[in-house]
User: Fold this.
Amino acid sequence: MKIAVLGKRDAWYTTAIQEAFRARGIDVPCFPVTALTASAGMGSFMRSSGQSLDDFDHLLVRAIPSGSLEQVIYRMDALHCLENRGVRVINPAETIERGVDKYYTLTLAEDLGIQIPPTIITEKFEDAISAVDELGGDIIVKPLFGSEGKGMVRVTEREAAYRLFRSIEMGRYVFYLQKYIPHGNRDIRLFFLGGKVAAAMTRIGKDWKCNIANGAAGERLIPEKELNDIGIRAAEMLRADYAGIDILPGDDRRYYLIEVNTIPGWRGLQKATGYDAAGALADYVLKNK
Assistant:
């Protein structure tokens, strides 16, 4: 069986995956998704750094770096083409596309009856200003695409919103606004793999941001049935092989789905719980040939 990682060479997650497969007797090379070369009309092929990817049985996607619209679309098209040729991509291209788009993910969740924070998305400055009041005057401004809490800003004053929104407008970004949900500076990360929630932790933040990358501390959590059900439904609605599901436990005793990460990290989860996600992922791939 031929398996490869699409990601960044020598990155922590790449190394963890390679070591997990090596322990199971399989060497797994890593190829950068930014070095893809494809052909059409002359005998189709897909290469990265000169190596053919068409002959691999499984490709584990660990990074889709930011880039121009053309670059990102091309990279995703390449994953779709590989799938069309019989290569199993994990997570599937469609799953990654859906998961990276917070707005679309939330609409799917709402359609399933999963609780989400009140959210308004718009391209118009005037509608964004009006949304501040509609959402109660205490909002979180987020990038539509992003992870690890980067670019998130809490706004509680209309004047501050005005200045920030003008900057967003000048950058030609979309306004992605959510009502602030009091949550005791805590949130929950569920790690989904192979149809079940395999591990979970509570993240305790230094402030309202609860990302490990922002200094939050993780504590092992044994999720109750309601949390398990949310995690499974959220991951399965995106048809994910594995995913990181972020949930906000509101002070109102409700669970709010924040996002579903379809290229999830687990370094903080492993430290908090001892769960060997790389090993479990390797076993899952080898079991589901």
Observations:
- The domain at 119-179 is CATH 3.30.1490.20 (Dna Ligase; domain 1).
